Amino acid sequence: MARILLIEDDTILAESLAKFLKIHGYDVDIASSYDEGAMLTLDNRYDLYLVDVNLGDGDGIDLVKALRLSEDETPTIFISALKDISTIARGFEVGAEDYIKKPFDPEELLIRIESRLKKNEEKEIRYRDLVYRGGRFFKKDKEIQLGEVQREILLTLLENRGKVVPKDRLYQLMINPSPLALRVALNKIKKKTGVDIKSVRGIGYVVD
Asked: Which domain holds residue 30?
């Protein structure tokens, strides 16, 4: 059973969503504030965060940014009444997988959650002492903390092991693609995983 943390200061909405998701087989914890959400993420392991942007004691996007800086890469979906492009962009910039605008149909949220979690569960890939399963990478049974973009880039390279993956294909996995941003992402992947990613000049990258 997938475990979800719902961080929402509207008590009625939070309880309604939690009840709806539990009916559909999810284990849901509710945090009604920024501070309570932060504490629950420290003490528990979740498969997904649902985070309201406007919390009474803080900004949900800032909370997720802080979690990412602490190497918590749990998939996140923002829920918010804010519909301006700048807020939505901020949400994706800190590593959110999705952003759904209030008011929304709970069925739509359910579809997005199921899509996100199904994507995580479908694949298992092994490369030397590195294992990808459940949407996460492990080395000697210890999880390696990678950002969403880093995970997708490494997964693409491993799925095409021995083949050169064009830079343009890797750019498609990025929010703000550029040669520099790609090099930074690849360097972080190498440092965290030890995977030897080789550059094929002018074409792309390959893992042997």
From this structure: 3-121
